[in-house]
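1st attempt posting a full record on here, be nice pls
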Amino acid sequence: MFADNTAWSFTDLNARVVNVAGTANSQNGSAADDTFVVDHRNDTVVETADAGTDTVRSSVSFQLPTNVENLTLTGSLNATALGNDGDNVITGNAADNVLDGRWGIDTLVGGTGNDTYRLVDTTQYHVPQDWIGSMLWDTITDQPGGVDTLVTNLFRAQLPDNVENLRTENAVASGIEFFRSGDDASVLDAYKSYGYRPKAHDFRAWYIGNTQDNIIDATGGGVTTRTVSGSVGTLLDGGEGADTLIGGTENDWYVVDNPGDVVIETGDFATSYDVISSSAVSLNAMANIEVLELTGDLTLNATGDANNNDLRSSKNSAVNVLTGKGGDDIYVIDTKDIVVEAANGGTDTVIVDGNDYRFWKTSGKVVMLADYANVENIAAVSQSDGDTSSMGMHIVGTAANNTVGGSRYNDILEGGAGDDVVEDSGTLVNPNHTYLVGDIDSLYGGDGNDTLISWSGNDLLDGGNGDDTLNGGSGNDVLDGGVGNDVIVFGIGDGHDTVRQLAADANASALNVLRFNNGVLASDVVVKRWGSSIEMTIASTGDSLLVEGFYLNNSPVHANNPLQRVEFFDGTNWSLAQLQQLASVDYNTAPPIVSQPLVDGSFAPGLVSYTIAPTAFTDADAQDALRYNATLSTGEALPAWLRSRRCHTNLYRDQ
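the predicted structure (as tokens):
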């Protein structure tokens, strides 16, 4: 019906319909540079190989046939332009286009419409673990205007200028997989251990924006980054604009640098580990986000909520305020940061970053947990590839029940009063104990019933007053339970420990126990007396524990004896009387034989290592222990400046 009341019937309409698509036809190229005009989706173009540089100009959706290089959309219709196996130049029109070069290194040129650029590999591929950089091998040029989208499953991609949105897409059933080899630490490993390791490999997929307001949606399952143990994560960084970042069920890192940025995490605490990091704006807790991290040099704040929050500011050089509110919160800080924790707000932990030299004990700093009100636990973390000899810390707990954890380096750790757990480095910063090293720490329980744990290294463990448990772990440790009924834990792989008790215990009924770990039976242990001491050796491994001062005036019953009973995992116990009896057994019924004379050697000043062949001595007695002692050639003792030390094979003990 028209304004003049003219009306068209169906027959009238049908008579006036024009077939704008034209008639399908076939075109054959020549050896020259050909241009083919396409106006019907069923048109066909045939071109031979190496026959010039050819172009299709199409007013409808079209895919380039083999041997044709370029495709240009004409007209005003919304259309799709697809490339072929070659390196194509694909140009859109002013309408809304889908441009996909398919395979090859292509150039995609969009117009002013709402264009979609597809960079999707439909075959499985792998990415080398140390590869860093963009995998956006196609070149995209978009004109200002419209709202444009890049759809990709590439491992790393950055939005080109004038393209607003990025969306991942899974083009194959099993996903595009990125594998890392071996056990090298990843960024995910470093974050979970609070280590920020300088050489951690960045195995994450990266999706980066531009200066516009972008939407980056990584929920399409385009990339699966995995190791044997699972995904290693995706980085989403919108750039300067007010961006919307949407993550999936993988581990996501969101970089926020604009107050207008919006983060939407669709995973949950059970399925992913997610981080929001910012060097430009303060951060507040968000749903399904585990970590808020401040970086850069601006004064910023990170504020949690009633849940368990992980707030970090040690990589920001300014004075930052971290507020946890409720929940069991973790604060990772340097010396300038301020922690605000509510009373009765959960069980909270401060982790001091030992890469800040102002925390080092060589600077005179004593790190006091009491400086962080309402925080129950404290630990240190240090990850450095430089000189680490001075990077240890002195950390002191409070009068309450604390867990105090050390760094990777030579620390002094004090529990203070209360029933404390003091460990040289371990569960507070790394539950899986992946990065333990052989440092030299001093652990003091103080008052209370404490648990002291040395995971590795040659450490001093001093329980102080109270009923304490001391576990030296691997390394050659000195363990002093102090006054009280103490337990020493020892087992296979624990090296060569020394147990002593410097403080006299006036309690005549004191009961100090040596407890062997599972895997050690009473029949595995050889007991020997050495002067006023006794030594228990696991015969199959050579691990040994020397109990100093066991005898006083030839009797083990005295106030400084650190041991009254031995317990085994299977329930077998040795009393004090049984220990004396076992220590009195003379195993040396046959003399050892020198099978291979020791070789003379001369050494320059410095650290010296001398190896004695395993076959140098033979002995028919399986229960014997072979001991070595270094002296001068005259038989006199070594001078004070020259010291001998037993090596890891336990060939001799310091004398």
